[in-house]
Every structure is written in C-alpha cells, then in structure tokens.
Amino acid sequence: MRLRVMTYNVHRCVGVDKRLNVERVAEVIDAMNPDVVCLQELDVRRMRTSNVDQAHRLGELLQMRSHFHPAMRIEEEEYGDAILTHLPERRVRVGSLPEYKRVPGLEPRGAVWIAVDVGGVELQIINTHLGLIPREQHRQAAALLGDWMAEDAWKAPAILVGDMNATPRSTTYRMFSAALRDAQDHRVPTPTFPSRFPFMRIDHVFMTGGIKVIGVEVPFDTKSKIASDHLPLVVELEVEAKAA
Questions:
Q1: Cα 196 from chain centroid (whole Å)
Q2: What's the CA gap between 225 and 85, in Å, rounded?
Q3: Which residues contact 85 (CB under 8 A, 6 or more apart)?
C-alpha cells in the first residue's frame, strides 16, 4: 500500500513575512495530500503565538489525529514536535534527547514515535528535531540509533524523519545513513531551507527495508515559500505487505 509522508518545520506557524497564520500552514499541508504529517517547532498555549494549541488546531483543520511531544515547557506553555495522521495509529514513545550542557542555553530536543496501520502492516514512525551544534547532534543521533531503535517495537518497516539540522556532508547524516536508507538516495537533491531560496538539505526521511520510494516532492509555490522558513518535504512510499 502507498502512503504520503510529510516532514515540515513550521516555525511556530510564523511565516517569513512575520505573520502568525496557522490556517495558512494547514493549507500548505493539505495541498500536498499527505497521509502522515511530521511537524517540528510547534507552539502550544504560548503567549507569543496567541495561546493557540497549534498541534490540536492543525489536526482539526486537516481532520487528523495528533500526537504532540513538548521538548520544552515554560509553566503552562509548551513547544515541540508532533505527528498527525488520518490512519489508524497508536503512540509508542515520546521523550527527550540528550542535551549538550557544555553550551548553556541550548534549546531542548525530543522525539515522538507512533505506529500506523498501512493496509494491515504496522509502520513505525519517529519524528524528531535535532540541535544545531554538531556534538549535540551526535549525542542525539546516537540516542535515537541506540536507545530508541534498540526497542523491540522498532522493526521494519520503519522510518525516521525530521529536521536534523544536518546536511549530507555532516557526521550526523552519515550516522543515520549507515544504519538506514535516505529516501532521496539516487535522486536529484531537493533542498528545503531556507524556504525562499532553498539550498540546504537538512530535512530528511530515513527508512528501513520493506519500503520502496515512489516519489519525492518539495512544493515551491508562493504560499509554501512564505508560510514557514522551511519548505515541506513529501515522500511517497510503498510499504511491502511483508517487510524485509
């Protein structure tokens, strides 16, 4: 069975025009017709973004269920990542990733993992947003490849997606590509950042066996270029009935 998976850093639903517009982000997502949407940089009940629960609101607008993990909490305000889908799903795990405490003030990072039913086959999906400093990224990548993927629930078919803040030349990327397959292998590279003039490929979809890539898309229409500082990356996959 085929499905379309999107990873999208929505930048708190604040566009490059400095406007807060959750509905505009939903329109960008909906135009790509994804089955699973992995989002990074969502605000939930934060004063700076009008106290909106962005994960819940986007789920409402897209008619999808959402699983949100707050990487950061400030009293009742939260900030983090989410996975939305209309497919039957269950939450497997949410949690924080290691911090690099030698550099004070770094943004906390986390991940959210759900399993979705794709034509009778359970697909594991982890969505994450890694830090900006290479040593911080290495620790977080090692935690995902070790602690998280050491769990019995992590088995093919499975995908790891998100804003890795790591280009294909980085050590962090090589860590992931040594264990998993980049969905864009052997394809024309599709950069997603910055949205108006994209030249960096830091948003990624990595896969286990049991999955075939049908196509890769990055929209470059006017609305997509303005809605966030990243463009969404959409990968159409075919999940084998019996995973390798």
A1: 20
A2: 24
A3: 35, 36, 37, 64, 65, 114, 116
List C-alpha distances in Å: 81 to 17, 41, 54, 137, 162: 23, 6, 10, 17, 9
Q: Among candidates 215, 157, 206, which has minimal Cα distance to 177? A: 206
Mean pLDDT of the chain: 96
Spatial CA neighbour of 211 closest among 18, 66, 3: 3
Structure tokens at 7: 């990873």
If pLDDT is split at 50, 70 and 90, which confidence band does 243 have?
very low
Give the residue extent of every domain in the chain. 2-239
CATH fold, domain 2-239, is Deoxyribonuclease I; Chain A (3.60.10)
Q: How much is the CA Rg of the chain, to the nearest whole Å?
A: 17
- Please give the angle made by the CA atoms of 63, 68 and 71, to the nearest 5 degrees: 155
Q: What is the pLDDT of residues 67-89, one digit of tens each?
A: 999 999 988 999 999 999 999 99
